[in-house]
Amino acid sequence: MSARSNNTPFWLLLIGLFLILVSKSLLTEGMFFDGVTYASISRNMAEGQGTFWNPHYTQTLYPEFRQHPPLALGMEALAFKAFGDHWWVEKAYSVLMFLLSGLFIALIWKRTTNNLRWAWLPLLFWLVMPLVSWSATNNLLENTMSVFVLLSVYLMIVGYQRHHKIWLFLSAFALLLAFLSKGFTGLFPLVFPILYCAFDQKRKWIQGPIDSLILLVSIAVFIGIMFLVCPGSFGYIKDYIRLQVIGGGLYEATASSRFYIVFALLQQLIIPLVLALVLVICKTKSKVNSKVFEFPLDKAWFYVFLIMGLVGVLPIMVSVKQRDFYMLAALPFFALACGHITLSMLTLWLPKITPKVRGCMTLGAGCVVLLGLVLNVIHIGKYGRDEALIKEVKQRIEEVGENSIIEVSQEEYTQWAKHAYYMRYGKISLSPTEQLNN
Questions:
Q1: Which of 218, 235, 309, 351 could bridge across to 334 with cysteines, CB 3.0–4.6 Å?
Q2: How many Cβ atoms from other residues are within 10 Å of residue 263's Cβ?
Q3: 408, HSE (Cβ side, Cα atoms, 13 Å)
Q4: Could you tell me which of 108, 207, 212 has the C-alpha nearest to residue 155?
Q5: 271 vs 345, higher pLDDT
Q6: By three-state DSSP, how is residue 406 classified?
Q7: In this structure, what are the phi and psi dihedrals at residue 252, rounded to the nearest 5 degrees?
Protein backbone atom coordinates (compact mmCIF):
# COMPACT_ATOMS: atom_id res chain seq x y z
CA MET A 1 0.00 0.00 0.00
CA SER A 2 1.38 3.44 -0.92
CA ALA A 3 2.46 6.03 1.63
CA ARG A 4 -0.16 8.36 0.23
CA SER A 5 -3.01 5.95 0.98
CA ASN A 6 -1.49 5.23 4.39
CA ASN A 7 -2.23 8.81 5.39
CA THR A 8 -5.66 9.13 3.77
CA PRO A 9 -7.72 8.40 6.93
CA PHE A 10 -5.80 11.03 8.88
CA TRP A 11 -6.34 13.72 6.26
CA LEU A 12 -10.04 12.86 6.21
CA LEU A 13 -10.13 12.97 10.01
CA LEU A 14 -8.49 16.40 9.95
CA ILE A 15 -11.07 17.75 7.49
CA GLY A 16 -13.98 16.21 9.37
CA LEU A 17 -12.77 17.50 12.72
CA PHE A 18 -12.48 21.02 11.32
CA LEU A 19 -16.01 20.89 9.90
CA ILE A 20 -17.40 19.68 13.22
CA LEU A 21 -15.55 22.31 15.27
CA VAL A 22 -16.79 25.21 13.12
CA SER A 23 -20.27 23.81 12.41
CA LYS A 24 -22.04 26.29 14.71
CA SER A 25 -20.24 29.34 13.36
CA LEU A 26 -19.17 28.77 9.74
CA LEU A 27 -22.50 29.21 7.92
CA THR A 28 -24.37 31.16 10.59
CA GLU A 29 -24.76 34.85 11.38
CA GLY A 30 -23.02 36.25 14.43
CA MET A 31 -19.39 36.78 15.26
CA PHE A 32 -17.10 37.92 18.06
CA PHE A 33 -17.59 41.69 18.13
CA ASP A 34 -13.96 42.46 17.30
CA GLY A 35 -14.47 40.58 14.05
CA VAL A 36 -17.70 42.46 13.35
CA THR A 37 -15.86 45.72 14.03
CA TYR A 38 -13.09 44.92 11.56
CA ALA A 39 -15.64 43.79 8.97
CA SER A 40 -17.49 47.10 9.35
CA ILE A 41 -14.31 49.11 8.86
CA SER A 42 -13.31 47.02 5.84
CA ARG A 43 -16.77 47.30 4.28
CA ASN A 44 -16.69 51.06 4.83
CA MET A 45 -13.28 51.26 3.17
CA ALA A 46 -14.53 49.23 0.21
CA GLU A 47 -17.43 51.66 -0.22
CA GLY A 48 -15.27 54.79 -0.01
CA GLN A 49 -15.92 55.62 3.64
CA GLY A 50 -12.35 55.94 4.82
CA THR A 51 -9.11 55.00 3.10
CA PHE A 52 -6.26 52.57 3.71
CA TRP A 53 -4.31 55.11 5.78
CA ASN A 54 -7.42 56.71 7.25
CA PRO A 55 -9.95 53.94 8.06
CA HIS A 56 -13.41 54.94 9.26
CA TYR A 57 -15.51 53.04 11.82
CA THR A 58 -18.59 55.08 12.82
CA GLN A 59 -19.42 58.77 12.91
CA THR A 60 -19.35 58.75 16.71
CA LEU A 61 -16.78 56.06 17.55
CA TYR A 62 -13.34 56.10 15.93
CA PRO A 63 -14.32 58.12 12.84
CA GLU A 64 -10.56 58.06 12.21
CA PHE A 65 -9.55 54.56 13.25
CA ARG A 66 -5.98 54.30 14.56
CA GLN A 67 -6.27 51.37 16.94
CA HIS A 68 -4.49 48.84 14.70
CA PRO A 69 -2.33 48.87 11.57
CA PRO A 70 -4.45 48.82 8.40
CA LEU A 71 -3.18 45.97 6.20
CA ALA A 72 -5.61 43.23 7.29
CA LEU A 73 -8.47 45.74 7.06
CA GLY A 74 -7.39 46.76 3.58
CA MET A 75 -7.09 43.15 2.42
CA GLU A 76 -10.58 42.39 3.71
CA ALA A 77 -11.85 45.52 1.96
CA LEU A 78 -10.75 43.92 -1.32
CA ALA A 79 -13.01 40.96 -0.49
CA PHE A 80 -15.96 43.32 -0.02
CA LYS A 81 -15.13 45.05 -3.29
CA ALA A 82 -15.10 41.70 -5.06
CA PHE A 83 -18.20 40.10 -3.53
CA GLY A 84 -20.30 42.97 -2.18
CA ASP A 85 -21.76 43.70 1.24
CA HIS A 86 -22.88 40.29 2.53
CA TRP A 87 -22.59 38.92 6.07
CA TRP A 88 -20.67 35.88 4.85
CA VAL A 89 -17.85 37.86 3.23
CA GLU A 90 -15.95 38.40 6.49
CA LYS A 91 -16.39 34.74 7.40
CA ALA A 92 -15.07 33.63 4.03
CA TYR A 93 -12.08 35.96 4.39
CA SER A 94 -11.42 34.69 7.91
CA VAL A 95 -11.54 31.04 6.83
CA LEU A 96 -9.29 31.84 3.86
CA MET A 97 -6.65 33.23 6.24
CA PHE A 98 -7.02 30.11 8.38
CA LEU A 99 -6.49 27.87 5.35
CA LEU A 100 -3.46 29.88 4.23
CA SER A 101 -1.96 29.48 7.70
CA GLY A 102 -2.56 25.75 7.44
CA LEU A 103 -0.88 25.73 4.02
CA PHE A 104 2.26 27.40 5.36
CA ILE A 105 2.36 25.05 8.34
CA ALA A 106 2.33 22.18 5.84
CA LEU A 107 5.03 23.81 3.70
CA ILE A 108 7.25 24.41 6.73
CA TRP A 109 6.71 20.78 7.72
CA LYS A 110 7.73 19.66 4.24
CA ARG A 111 10.92 21.71 4.47
CA THR A 112 11.84 20.30 7.88
CA THR A 113 10.87 16.65 7.28
CA ASN A 114 10.98 16.33 3.48
CA ASN A 115 7.55 14.66 3.62
CA LEU A 116 4.41 16.63 2.86
CA ARG A 117 2.11 13.62 3.19
CA TRP A 118 2.62 13.61 6.95
CA ALA A 119 1.70 17.29 7.28
CA TRP A 120 -1.63 16.24 8.79
CA LEU A 121 0.28 15.61 12.04
CA PRO A 122 1.21 19.23 12.94
CA LEU A 123 -2.09 20.40 11.45
CA LEU A 124 -3.95 18.07 13.80
CA PHE A 125 -1.99 19.31 16.82
CA TRP A 126 -2.79 22.86 15.68
CA LEU A 127 -6.49 22.25 15.10
CA VAL A 128 -7.17 20.67 18.49
CA MET A 129 -6.13 23.90 20.20
CA PRO A 130 -9.55 25.46 21.01
CA LEU A 131 -8.49 28.98 20.05
CA VAL A 132 -7.58 27.93 16.51
CA SER A 133 -10.99 26.69 15.35
CA TRP A 134 -12.72 29.55 17.20
CA SER A 135 -10.61 32.19 15.46
CA ALA A 136 -11.09 30.57 12.04
CA THR A 137 -14.60 32.03 11.73
CA ASN A 138 -14.29 35.15 13.91
CA ASN A 139 -12.33 37.45 11.61
CA LEU A 140 -9.50 38.39 13.96
CA LEU A 141 -6.60 40.50 12.72
CA GLU A 142 -4.34 37.80 14.13
CA ASN A 143 -5.60 35.47 11.39
CA THR A 144 -3.99 37.62 8.71
CA MET A 145 -0.90 38.29 10.83
CA SER A 146 -0.40 34.53 11.31
CA VAL A 147 -0.20 34.03 7.55
CA PHE A 148 2.67 36.50 7.21
CA VAL A 149 4.43 35.23 10.35
CA LEU A 150 4.43 31.68 8.97
CA LEU A 151 5.40 32.92 5.51
CA SER A 152 8.41 34.74 6.96
CA VAL A 153 9.64 31.61 8.76
CA TYR A 154 9.08 29.49 5.65
CA LEU A 155 11.13 31.92 3.55
CA MET A 156 13.94 31.87 6.11
CA ILE A 157 14.05 28.07 6.08
CA VAL A 158 14.15 28.07 2.27
CA GLY A 159 16.96 30.61 2.37
CA TYR A 160 19.06 28.59 4.78
CA GLN A 161 18.54 25.40 2.81
CA ARG A 162 19.39 27.10 -0.50
CA HIS A 163 22.22 29.22 0.98
CA HIS A 164 20.98 32.46 -0.54
CA LYS A 165 20.49 35.77 1.31
CA ILE A 166 17.72 37.02 -0.98
CA TRP A 167 15.26 34.87 0.96
CA LEU A 168 16.20 36.71 4.13
CA PHE A 169 15.14 40.02 2.57
CA LEU A 170 11.89 38.46 1.36
CA SER A 171 11.30 37.22 4.89
CA ALA A 172 11.89 40.74 6.22
CA PHE A 173 9.21 42.03 3.86
CA ALA A 174 6.81 39.33 5.10
CA LEU A 175 7.53 40.46 8.67
CA LEU A 176 6.72 44.03 7.67
CA LEU A 177 3.36 42.77 6.40
CA ALA A 178 2.83 40.92 9.70
CA PHE A 179 3.52 44.17 11.58
CA LEU A 180 1.13 46.08 9.32
CA SER A 181 -1.56 43.47 10.05
CA LYS A 182 -1.59 43.61 13.87
CA GLY A 183 1.53 45.34 15.14
CA PHE A 184 4.65 44.43 17.07
CA THR A 185 3.38 40.99 18.12
CA GLY A 186 4.06 39.84 14.57
CA LEU A 187 7.81 40.46 14.78
CA PHE A 188 8.81 37.57 17.04
CA PRO A 189 10.22 35.52 14.09
CA LEU A 190 13.19 37.90 14.26
CA VAL A 191 14.69 35.35 16.67
CA PHE A 192 14.38 32.45 14.20
CA PRO A 193 17.87 32.86 12.67
CA ILE A 194 19.41 32.77 16.16
CA LEU A 195 17.59 29.55 16.99
CA TYR A 196 18.27 27.94 13.62
CA CYS A 197 22.00 28.60 13.73
CA ALA A 198 22.24 27.60 17.39
CA PHE A 199 20.82 24.13 16.69
CA ASP A 200 22.38 23.58 13.26
CA GLN A 201 25.80 22.07 13.85
CA LYS A 202 26.88 22.93 10.31
CA ARG A 203 26.62 26.66 10.97
CA LYS A 204 28.50 29.06 13.20
CA TRP A 205 26.28 30.33 16.00
CA ILE A 206 27.34 33.93 15.37
CA GLN A 207 25.61 33.83 11.98
CA GLY A 208 22.23 33.75 13.75
CA PRO A 209 22.46 37.15 15.48
CA ILE A 210 23.95 38.64 12.31
CA ASP A 211 21.02 37.41 10.22
CA SER A 212 18.52 38.63 12.83
CA LEU A 213 20.16 42.05 12.65
CA ILE A 214 19.93 41.96 8.85
CA LEU A 215 16.21 41.20 9.18
CA LEU A 216 15.69 44.08 11.60
CA VAL A 217 17.61 46.58 9.47
CA SER A 218 15.77 45.41 6.34
CA ILE A 219 12.41 45.93 8.04
CA ALA A 220 13.50 49.42 9.10
CA VAL A 221 14.53 50.20 5.51
CA PHE A 222 11.21 48.92 4.17
CA ILE A 223 9.34 51.05 6.71
CA GLY A 224 11.40 54.09 5.70
CA ILE A 225 10.54 53.49 2.05
CA MET A 226 6.87 53.12 3.02
CA PHE A 227 6.95 56.47 4.84
CA LEU A 228 8.42 58.13 1.74
CA VAL A 229 6.08 56.52 -0.78
CA CYS A 230 2.86 56.66 1.30
CA PRO A 231 2.49 60.14 2.84
CA GLY A 232 -0.25 59.12 5.28
CA SER A 233 1.63 56.14 6.66
CA PHE A 234 3.95 57.98 9.04
CA GLY A 235 1.14 59.81 10.85
CA TYR A 236 -0.92 56.64 11.04
CA ILE A 237 1.84 54.49 12.55
CA LYS A 238 2.79 57.29 14.94
CA ASP A 239 -0.82 57.59 16.15
CA TYR A 240 -1.11 53.80 16.44
CA ILE A 241 1.98 53.58 18.64
CA ARG A 242 0.84 56.51 20.78
CA LEU A 243 -2.73 55.32 21.26
CA GLN A 244 -2.47 51.54 21.24
CA VAL A 245 1.08 50.54 22.12
CA ILE A 246 1.99 53.22 24.66
CA GLY A 247 -1.48 54.30 25.80
CA GLY A 248 -3.26 50.97 25.63
CA GLY A 249 -0.41 48.53 26.15
CA LEU A 250 0.99 50.18 29.26
CA TYR A 251 -2.09 51.58 30.94
CA GLU A 252 -5.17 49.67 29.71
CA ALA A 253 -5.58 46.52 31.80
CA THR A 254 -7.68 43.65 30.44
CA ALA A 255 -6.07 40.90 32.53
CA SER A 256 -5.94 40.49 36.30
CA SER A 257 -2.33 39.31 36.15
CA ARG A 258 0.62 39.49 33.79
CA PHE A 259 0.66 35.69 33.97
CA TYR A 260 -2.80 35.48 32.38
CA ILE A 261 -1.32 34.73 28.96
CA VAL A 262 0.74 31.86 30.41
CA PHE A 263 -2.32 30.17 31.88
CA ALA A 264 -4.21 30.79 28.63
CA LEU A 265 -1.37 29.12 26.72
CA LEU A 266 -1.47 26.07 28.98
CA GLN A 267 -5.20 25.73 28.30
CA GLN A 268 -4.53 25.72 24.57
CA LEU A 269 -1.76 23.15 24.85
CA ILE A 270 -3.52 20.63 27.10
CA ILE A 271 -4.88 18.45 24.29
CA PRO A 272 -1.79 18.47 22.02
CA LEU A 273 0.53 17.94 24.99
CA VAL A 274 -1.50 14.97 26.22
CA LEU A 275 -1.48 13.44 22.73
CA ALA A 276 2.23 14.03 22.33
CA LEU A 277 2.98 12.74 25.83
CA VAL A 278 1.11 9.50 25.19
CA LEU A 279 3.11 8.89 22.01
CA VAL A 280 6.42 9.75 23.68
CA ILE A 281 5.65 7.39 26.58
CA CYS A 282 4.76 4.63 24.13
CA LYS A 283 7.99 5.36 22.31
CA THR A 284 9.97 5.05 25.55
CA LYS A 285 8.23 1.81 26.57
CA SER A 286 8.53 0.26 23.12
CA LYS A 287 10.59 -2.91 22.85
CA VAL A 288 11.88 -1.80 19.47
CA ASN A 289 15.55 -0.86 19.27
CA SER A 290 15.83 2.75 20.41
CA LYS A 291 18.12 3.57 17.49
CA VAL A 292 15.04 3.52 15.29
CA PHE A 293 13.94 6.70 17.03
CA GLU A 294 17.18 8.63 16.81
CA PHE A 295 16.43 11.58 14.53
CA PRO A 296 18.80 14.39 15.58
CA LEU A 297 17.36 16.76 12.99
CA ASP A 298 13.82 16.19 14.26
CA LYS A 299 15.00 16.81 17.81
CA ALA A 300 16.67 20.05 16.79
CA TRP A 301 13.53 21.24 15.02
CA PHE A 302 11.51 20.37 18.11
CA TYR A 303 13.59 22.76 20.21
CA VAL A 304 13.59 25.47 17.54
CA PHE A 305 9.81 25.48 17.18
CA LEU A 306 9.16 25.12 20.91
CA ILE A 307 11.31 28.14 21.72
CA MET A 308 9.78 30.05 18.80
CA GLY A 309 6.33 29.49 20.27
CA LEU A 310 7.45 30.65 23.71
CA VAL A 311 9.07 33.76 22.22
CA GLY A 312 5.76 34.54 20.52
CA VAL A 313 3.82 34.32 23.79
CA LEU A 314 5.92 35.28 26.82
CA PRO A 315 6.71 38.90 25.76
CA ILE A 316 2.97 39.60 25.94
CA MET A 317 3.45 39.52 29.72
CA VAL A 318 5.11 42.94 29.49
CA SER A 319 1.65 44.47 29.10
CA VAL A 320 -1.39 44.08 31.34
CA LYS A 321 -3.52 44.38 28.21
CA GLN A 322 -3.84 40.70 27.34
CA ARG A 323 -6.32 38.54 25.47
CA ASP A 324 -5.84 34.87 24.71
CA PHE A 325 -6.05 35.40 20.95
CA TYR A 326 -2.99 37.67 21.05
CA MET A 327 -0.89 34.46 20.97
CA LEU A 328 -2.66 32.99 17.93
CA ALA A 329 0.33 33.43 15.60
CA ALA A 330 2.59 31.52 18.01
CA LEU A 331 0.40 28.41 18.28
CA PRO A 332 1.47 26.85 14.94
CA PHE A 333 5.02 26.57 16.25
CA PHE A 334 3.90 24.56 19.27
CA ALA A 335 2.02 22.31 16.86
CA LEU A 336 5.12 21.88 14.71
CA ALA A 337 7.16 21.08 17.82
CA CYS A 338 4.65 18.41 18.88
CA GLY A 339 4.70 17.00 15.37
CA HIS A 340 8.47 16.65 15.34
CA ILE A 341 8.68 14.97 18.73
CA THR A 342 6.06 12.36 17.78
CA LEU A 343 6.86 11.79 14.11
CA SER A 344 9.35 8.96 14.64
CA MET A 345 6.84 6.94 16.67
CA LEU A 346 4.09 7.26 14.10
CA THR A 347 6.31 6.50 11.12
CA LEU A 348 7.15 3.22 12.84
CA TRP A 349 3.65 2.23 13.90
CA LEU A 350 1.32 3.33 11.15
CA PRO A 351 2.87 1.34 8.27
CA LYS A 352 2.25 -1.81 10.32
CA ILE A 353 -1.51 -1.30 10.27
CA THR A 354 -3.15 -4.00 8.15
CA PRO A 355 -5.07 -3.04 4.99
CA LYS A 356 -8.32 -4.22 6.59
CA VAL A 357 -7.86 -2.03 9.66
CA ARG A 358 -6.78 0.88 7.49
CA GLY A 359 -9.88 0.47 5.36
CA CYS A 360 -12.03 0.65 8.48
CA MET A 361 -10.12 3.75 9.60
CA THR A 362 -10.72 5.40 6.23
CA LEU A 363 -14.42 4.57 6.39
CA GLY A 364 -14.66 5.93 9.92
CA ALA A 365 -12.83 9.12 8.98
CA GLY A 366 -15.13 9.51 5.98
CA CYS A 367 -18.09 9.28 8.34
CA VAL A 368 -16.56 12.07 10.43
CA VAL A 369 -16.36 14.24 7.31
CA LEU A 370 -19.98 13.42 6.46
CA LEU A 371 -21.05 14.27 10.00
CA GLY A 372 -19.25 17.60 9.75
CA LEU A 373 -20.99 18.42 6.47
CA VAL A 374 -24.40 17.50 7.89
CA LEU A 375 -23.86 19.62 11.00
CA ASN A 376 -22.93 22.63 8.88
CA VAL A 377 -25.97 22.20 6.63
CA ILE A 378 -28.24 21.89 9.68
CA HIS A 379 -27.04 25.25 10.99
CA ILE A 380 -27.60 27.18 7.75
CA GLY A 381 -29.97 30.08 8.39
CA LYS A 382 -29.39 30.04 12.14
CA TYR A 383 -27.46 32.37 14.41
CA GLY A 384 -24.09 31.28 15.72
CA ARG A 385 -24.13 33.87 18.51
CA ASP A 386 -25.74 37.18 19.54
CA GLU A 387 -29.12 36.19 18.08
CA ALA A 388 -31.14 38.57 20.27
CA LEU A 389 -28.83 41.50 19.54
CA ILE A 390 -28.79 40.89 15.78
CA LYS A 391 -32.59 40.66 15.66
CA GLU A 392 -32.86 43.87 17.70
CA VAL A 393 -30.48 45.63 15.33
CA LYS A 394 -32.33 44.45 12.21
CA GLN A 395 -35.68 45.58 13.63
CA ARG A 396 -34.32 49.00 14.56
CA ILE A 397 -32.81 49.43 11.12
CA GLU A 398 -36.25 48.84 9.57
CA GLU A 399 -37.63 51.60 11.82
CA VAL A 400 -34.98 54.31 11.36
CA GLY A 401 -33.36 53.33 8.06
CA GLU A 402 -29.69 53.02 7.21
CA ASN A 403 -26.92 55.64 7.34
CA SER A 404 -28.20 57.45 10.40
CA ILE A 405 -27.24 58.31 13.97
CA ILE A 406 -29.46 57.06 16.77
CA GLU A 407 -29.53 58.08 20.39
CA VAL A 408 -28.78 55.52 23.09
CA SER A 409 -28.21 55.63 26.82
CA GLN A 410 -24.73 55.93 28.28
CA GLU A 411 -24.92 52.29 29.34
CA GLU A 412 -25.80 51.14 25.82
CA TYR A 413 -23.09 53.33 24.32
CA THR A 414 -20.42 51.35 26.15
CA GLN A 415 -21.76 48.05 24.77
CA TRP A 416 -19.20 47.81 21.98
CA ALA A 417 -20.91 44.87 20.29
CA LYS A 418 -23.92 47.13 19.62
CA HIS A 419 -21.72 49.63 17.82
CA ALA A 420 -20.30 46.81 15.72
CA TYR A 421 -23.59 45.24 14.68
CA TYR A 422 -25.41 48.54 14.04
CA MET A 423 -22.60 49.68 11.77
CA ARG A 424 -22.19 46.29 10.09
CA TYR A 425 -25.87 45.76 9.29
CA GLY A 426 -27.21 49.29 8.89
CA LYS A 427 -24.26 51.70 8.72
CA ILE A 428 -25.76 53.28 11.82
CA SER A 429 -23.72 55.20 14.39
CA LEU A 430 -24.68 55.28 18.06
CA SER A 431 -24.52 58.45 20.11
CA PRO A 432 -24.96 58.84 23.89
CA THR A 433 -27.86 61.07 24.90
CA GLU A 434 -25.75 63.99 26.10
CA GLN A 435 -23.53 64.03 23.01
CA LEU A 436 -26.48 64.04 20.61
CA ASN A 437 -28.24 66.84 22.49
CA ASN A 438 -25.13 68.96 22.41
A1: 309
A2: 11
A3: 20
A4: 108
A5: 271
A6: strand
A7: -95, 110
